[in-house]
Amino acid sequence: MRPSGRKTDQMRKVTFERNVSKHAEGSCVVKFGDTHVLCTASLEEKTPPWLRNSGKGWVTAEYGMLPRATGERMKREAAAGKQGGRTQEIQRLIGRSLRAVVDLTALGEKQITIDCDVLQADGGTRTAAITGAWIALHDCLRWMEARGMVKVEKVLKDHVAAISCGIFASQSVIDLDYLEDSAAETDANFVMTGSGGIVEIQGTAEGKPFTEEEFAGLMALARTGIAELVEMQKQAIA
Amino acid sequence: MRPSGRKTDQMRKVTFERNVSKHAEGSCVVKFGDTHVLCTASLEEKTPPWLRNSGKGWVTAEYGMLPRATGERMKREAAAGKQGGRTQEIQRLIGRSLRAVVDLTALGEKQITIDCDVLQADGGTRTAAITGAWIALHDCLRWMEARGMVKVEKVLKDHVAAISCGIFASQSVIDLDYLEDSAAETDANFVMTGSGGIVEIQGTAEGKPFTEEEFAGLMALARTGIAELVEMQKQAIA
Amino acid sequence: MRPSGRKTDQMRKVTFERNVSKHAEGSCVVKFGDTHVLCTASLEEKTPPWLRNSGKGWVTAEYGMLPRATGERMKREAAAGKQGGRTQEIQRLIGRSLRAVVDLTALGEKQITIDCDVLQADGGTRTAAITGAWIALHDCLRWMEARGMVKVEKVLKDHVAAISCGIFASQSVIDLDYLEDSAAETDANFVMTGSGGIVEIQGTAEGKPFTEEEFAGLMALARTGIAELVEMQKQAIA
Amino acid sequence: MRPSGRKTDQMRKVTFERNVSKHAEGSCVVKFGDTHVLCTASLEEKTPPWLRNSGKGWVTAEYGMLPRATGERMKREAAAGKQGGRTQEIQRLIGRSLRAVVDLTALGEKQITIDCDVLQADGGTRTAAITGAWIALHDCLRWMEARGMVKVEKVLKDHVAAISCGIFASQSVIDLDYLEDSAAETDANFVMTGSGGIVEIQGTAEGKPFTEEEFAGLMALARTGIAELVEMQKQAIA
Amino acid sequence: MRPSGRKTDQMRKVTFERNVSKHAEGSCVVKFGDTHVLCTASLEEKTPPWLRNSGKGWVTAEYGMLPRATGERMKREAAAGKQGGRTQEIQRLIGRSLRAVVDLTALGEKQITIDCDVLQADGGTRTAAITGAWIALHDCLRWMEARGMVKVEKVLKDHVAAISCGIFASQSVIDLDYLEDSAAETDANFVMTGSGGIVEIQGTAEGKPFTEEEFAGLMALARTGIAELVEMQKQAIA
Amino acid sequence: MRPSGRKTDQMRKVTFERNVSKHAEGSCVVKFGDTHVLCTASLEEKTPPWLRNSGKGWVTAEYGMLPRATGERMKREAAAGKQGGRTQEIQRLIGRSLRAVVDLTALGEKQITIDCDVLQADGGTRTAAITGAWIALHDCLRWMEARGMVKVEKVLKDHVAAISCGIFASQSVIDLDYLEDSAAETDANFVMTGSGGIVEIQGTAEGKPFTEEEFAGLMALARTGIAELVEMQKQAIA
């Protein structure tokens, strides 16, 4: 029995609120239950140094958590003077996930930075961030298309979304909340495209090692969940 | 004529949305027009080292701006590795303003940290932050009172709120938005209590120096505006 | 009764010692009683990036305190690895104050940096720094004038000086020393020009909030004091 | 055809040189072909703060690359003033992998730090590091056992080893060297125990997304390779 | 011919101004010609962690240069966020030099920190700093003796002073100023005690290597110069 | 009697293993007994900013110690976020020593960085590093010569090597190991060229000051030792 009373294959309520920022070229607040992430896309007319004169653009991401997004207040990273290892891991993952569905040459020599800031955390912040970041990126590209800068269909080749699955109380469950996450034996994050291709898999045994069969079960759950998320993304941008 | 069409003594629409955080002991999103600040209050059962065994508690604040809260994306302070001078100035101001209406002995050896994170900026983020921080602090104290830890009336001696005033296009105006702020000849921030006492005054000539008469005009505007803000705080917590 | 025996409207003895540095284009040691600040002006043939090709120059300031300028030794900021919030607040204030009386276009694409280093502190370091920085800036401009680079009268439009006032033992007093400063109920800093314009006002209630009347009293004290300081600046450069 | 002429399921030559450090309680240089990692285990009689008085110990890892371990010299992280995101990701992975086979309660309130420093890199540094770190950890525990501090069999529950697999030139290959790694379409790292349990899976699409079938192929390769590595570990400590 | 017209064995005019700080337990401004260093001694009733409960005290030093102490303004180390290698080298040297003449057990569990801040630089700042630091340390110990805390003669076993010598224009000269220092072929710093013992020798070939005979010549010059400096220290504290 | 049983003028066994790095243009592992340092030379086609368009190149060095190179594990400098004072002193010394035998104009506008990383420490790491760095530098220049970039004989004017000497148990001894180093009364490092010129001398009294005669004794020991080291370098590159 899950603490939330959800079924093993039942995700939390997922919503996207678009155009939440007056300034950003694309933005949304994505909610996976009590996990709320603000995603903004910022267009800059330049690329990183290593792409200068390559004709290619870049899509990157930064991730942050507000100090009291969590049950206990965490030290503000800006005050601590550096981003922790977990933050860096996550923002690198978000960037890679988005670039997997972007044609950087079609984008041209521009950079889009997606900022994913967790307003409230209840497990699964990185998967919510990726799923919402796609919406912000899409809206930024629409903004550019409206100004004749790109063709969205040329740049954005597919959807990308992510979900966590894990083994909690000996059962495979989808979309773990904080209570489940902190007690899970195995924790896995999956990033997939709209057409079902896999972009990233991260599986970690928190307690005892897991088997291939268990992992296959988690992936099956993820596949169904991500298909649902992609459907919701489609409705959100319709 | 103000860019927004407001009258010289007309503040933007101000709203407080309380209890926006599942985790924080007190929280609100305060909006002064398009300036939106998330304020959370976090209670810790400890004081800073210099107050150990003094019987006194502490109220402090931290301030941050999401990278794309502004028209152009700013570098994330956590990535830059330090908080800028402006950030530090503002968070020191918020902390002082709140402490001016708190009886630290009545609070006891506890620390309340108010995090003020600007989700969207359109001028006046520090004054919105102070005004909203008071709500978050109040709600945190109510939370403590419900658990028998303090008497709110003993700890929180008064309201505190803040507003900016300035000379824009040769006219004294209240609650400057970004367009006005960036073109103002004089910019002043006032922090006052519910009973009309002054807690902080900061006045800066951006262009040519200002006169005592001009400054008195700004203060008169501020006095009326802050009285309105305090009234709104009262309604918000009613 | 003030600890120093001074009258409420009596400043400490103020002196300027010019040309104290063999290297700097302008320099002075300013003393407000036991508060001693070394101010040096350094000319550089470049501007900050945001002013390139604008035809404008820049005047900026940095502030520091020697570790044992104070009663108890403070940690050296270079060893701590960052400048504290107070340091940043003060150096931003000094820079703004000086720029208020400088015509940056008449200066041309050059940068003058005023370093204000507190050799000994006894309250009022920021106001002494501003008052002395003006002398260093003036002397730097004279140095430039002697080389045909600028006309001092075109660049330096007015004097600027600063003084602190506060409410100590229920009385409004001028130019607080450390003993008064640490016990003051209200503390205010005023920066004004030679012609009486106000450049900066910062007023803070340390204990209970203050009234508009009290603040007006502090401003009146400041106005007289700053007029005296400007007179002393005139004599110093005569 | 692989650049090295290896077969798709052929790992590079793997060797362990034990006891390479005069000082460390356990140490080895592990080589996967031209990838050489020095692993040292350091015992400290203390635990991290969050485990004080818990009766539990801790095993952690740090990872570094000498500046010229790579084809082009990289900036020294100590000189840069921080560890990069990749470094932090890898050292967190090594620590988690080792803790998966350690009984922290049987270890008692001690900390073992495994330093993995890459002397020369040619792809697969993290998998070589994990595989060698196990040897260093084992030898440290033997050192402790010889002094009556622990029973190795109680603390170290199993072997752990790691290998990378990927899709290179449309073929699934094991143990990618740098040339393959930088051109691979998909890159995956697997960490498994001696009894075949999975500890960590990380799969990343570098170019186009991959399929479940492709991933299953990589995992099959990894399973065989890790079994070989565990066998080599057994011989190394025999 | 030396740029200053001095003879090869002629030091610059050396002066000590004692008691320049209202706050420090000991202080002096030492001048070697145009090189001016403010030395303050700060007493703290604690020792570094590694000496706790050892019965021993500690003497340490910090060194800094004001940004415009030099011909061209240097970046402020506090703003740069770290102390450079040269600064660290020098402050370690000053500390070692002073401890060579201090009986740390006779000092007892206290720490004296000598801050050496260069107000104006014209070569030889480290040797001036050591020579002046001894005066500040001495005066701090006298301050302590007056309060019954130590016996100066027990703690301070001897004088210590320092001088630079070098080969300039093929001649061995003493006490190089900046012009000589920047053109010297060989540069050496000597730290010696009042009784003629050597505490530190640092010799560096700036251009071509030097011979033992040349080095012996520099040491002979240094020996005479340091004897003079010690004599001046004796007069200064008389 | 020395702890190692060596005679007072007997160095430890010294070996050079060349070409230890697949990537670096020059490399060696130098061993002075149990002190092992990996030296790699990296060629870059650029110079530091201050040498641009000067026609001159640059040779510099960086130094690091692996965390468990020592008897007790030291904090990793990359994790600490800065290089300590000792590290900076040593790497500056290595760079100066190498440049003393290099004709930077003959090198041309290129930079060679020598990384000296201590794999295992037992005293004398800086002298081993200098001695081994010369080999790595030489081999890098040979690599360049093979590509027609330089003439080795034009660039590398002489050998350079280094040794420590000290007074241990009242006797002058050469090449101190850790046990001797930590108990020595005087510790000196000498850097000399193949033709006997002195490049650097650093002598420090750890306990009581030393005499000129004692220092002369140390230098005599060093001269013989360095001559031997240069002979070994010659054999190593033969």
From TrEMBL, chains A, B, C, D, E, F:
Cleavable signal peptide: none
Residue ranges constituting the Exoribonuclease phosphorolytic domain according to the UniProt record: 10-140, 160-224
Top-rank taxon, per record: Bacteria
Keywords: Nucleotidyltransferase, RNA-binding, rRNA processing, Transferase, tRNA processing, tRNA-binding
GO biological process: rRNA 3'-end processing; rRNA catabolic process; tRNA processing
SUPFAM superfamilies linked to this entry: Ribonuclease PH domain 2-like (SSF55666), Ribosomal protein S5 domain 2-like (SSF54211)
InterPro entries per UniProt: ExoRNase_PH_dom1 (IPR001247), ExoRNase_PH_dom2 (IPR015847), ExoRNase_PH_dom2_sf (IPR036345), PNPase/RNase_PH_dom_sf (IPR027408), Ribosomal_Su5_D2-typ_SF (IPR020568), RNase_PH (IPR050080), RNase_PH_bac-type (IPR002381), RNase_PH_CS (IPR018336)
Annotated residues for binding of phosphate: R86, G124, T125, R126
Catalysed conversion reaction: tRNA(n+1) + phosphate = tRNA(n) + a ribonucleoside 5'-diphosphate
Keyword RNA-binding in annotation: yes
EC id: 2.7.7.56
GO molecular-function terms, A-Z: 3'-5'-RNA exonuclease activity; tRNA binding; tRNA nucleotidyltransferase activity
Classification via PANTHER family: EXOSOME COMPLEX COMPONENT, EXOSOME COMPLEX COMPONENT RRP41
Subunit structure, interactors included: Homohexameric ring arranged as a trimer of dimers.
Functional description taken from the UniProt entry: Phosphorolytic 3'-5' exoribonuclease that plays an important role in tRNA 3'-end maturation. Removes nucleotide residues following the 3'-CCA terminus of tRNAs; can also add nucleotides to the ends of RNA molecules by using nucleoside diphosphates as substrates, but this may not be physiologically important. Probably plays a role in initiation of 16S rRNA degradation (leading to ribosome degradation) during starvation.
Family the UniProt entry places it in: Belongs to the RNase PH family.
HAMAP family xref list: RNase_PH (MF_00564)
Full protein name: Ribonuclease PH
Organism: Mycoplana dimorpha
